[in-house]
Specification:
256 residues
Amino acid sequence: EASLARILHTGETAPVHRITMWSRVRLELRKAVTTRSGTILTIATLAWAPLVLAGWIAAVGTEGHALDTVLGIGATGVAILLPIVTLLQVSGEWGQRSVLTTFSLDPARGRVLAAKVLAGQILALVVIATCLGFSVLAAALMGVDLRTGSLGSTLVGIGAGGMLYALMGSALGALSLSTALGVGLLLLGPQLVYNLGPLAGDRWADIGPWVEINNRLGELTGGSVAHWGHLAVAVLLWIVVPLAVGTWRIHRADVA
């Protein structure tokens, strides 16, 4: 009250502090883990690795498994649930109309989107590291020799693939600005391309490897990319282009 009286009497105003990108990222991280849907999906993604590994070990036993197989089983939740978490982070506010409040407090739409994407990547890194930690622990408890195979390249491949899956979720969320439509594009889009593409005939054998994003990211997480050019083009089509179009849409969208 004293500060308000001084401002009214003297005309002085408090200095305006510029919103930093790190402040935006921290806010978006807080939103991601405090909303009900975000919390449930994040917990489910984190719980996926130990639950699936426990079930898998109970079903097939602990003998005769390679390290790459154990890591791949533990990381499956990253490809399935993690993109939905990052998609919700971008599209959720548009469905709830709370984006009006967000842009009223911070009109820099491009920076808000960048903060959402960066927060999604930080969250993805934490989730991937946790899942891989559970997987390595499970492999050690199973008696798998961690020195066999290419542990380093496998971890890097799973990490890079998981980050791209998360970025794909953010990109499709920005493109659709709708959770239902975005999830549909994320889950059905690559499957439709994979299943309907062969209807194009013999030409699909040449076209398919360039546009089948799930297969390309699957190769990356498996540590055996057959053709880096195929991966680059698929990432361009499914991540870079949707994110660019989504950025344009967010700048022009009416939030009133």
